[in-house]
């Protein structure tokens, strides 16, 4: 887990630098991005008791990965990746992960981030478990979404020219298909994901 955590921290730092070279000193409101992602997650899961809804767990899991992006950003703050990765593992070892339903776990995380404006690894892990995700699932989907974020930036996300919906489906949905078809253990996994996105993207 240590190695994978360090890889994800390094990738997140690199992504943030692509958006803004001096991102650490910009004091971005990561906490706000997290609770808004929590709302989007609940929307994908379904909360409307007055109509029939079926949880879209693939999209729920992608929202969890988005939350992890912002959580990692809050944890980095210019610190050593190995130190942060070790702290994450210690937090998980010292506290039992709550067994909650998806919406309850999501609301617990949102409540914690709004109250403390600090990222709670344990609240996040409870959400991860509630959605039947393993650490390996998180790693694979995180790398995939990180690549998608780079792909978006390379194709005009910042200036507004990026096309997010292709053939009637959002890019996140295309990413889900791509990840299901690829092996995350390959050294060129990230490159494969990028190339597959490029193949599907409308030129």
From TrEMBL:
It comes from the Bacteria. This is dUTP diphosphatase.
């Amino acid at each position: 887990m240590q190695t994978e955590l360090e890889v994800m921290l390094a990738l997140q730092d690199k992504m943030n630098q692509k958006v803004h070279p001096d991102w650490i000193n910009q004091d971005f409101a990561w906490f706000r991005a997290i609770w808004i992602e929590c709302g989007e997650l609940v929307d994908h899961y379904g909360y409307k008791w007055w109509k029939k809804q079926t949880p879209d767990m693939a999209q729920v899991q992608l929202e969890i990965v988005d939350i992890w992006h912002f959580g990692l950003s809050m944890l980095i703050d210019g610190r050593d990746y190995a130190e942060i990765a070790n702290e994450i593992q210690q937090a998980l070892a010292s506290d039992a992960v709550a067994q909650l339903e998806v919406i309850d776990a999501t609301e617990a995380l949102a409540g914690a981030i709004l109250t403390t404006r600090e990222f709670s690894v344990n609240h996040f892990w409870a959400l991860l478990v509630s959605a039947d995700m393993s650490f390996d699932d998180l790693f694979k989907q995180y790398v995939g979404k990180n690549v998608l974020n780079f792909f978006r930036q390379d194709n005009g996300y910042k200036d507004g020219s990026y096309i997010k919906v292709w053939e009637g489906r959002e890019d996140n949905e295309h990413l889900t298909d791509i990840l299901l078809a690829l092996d995350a253990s390959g050294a060129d996994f990230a490159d494969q994901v990028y190339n597959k996105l490029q193949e599907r993207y409308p030129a």
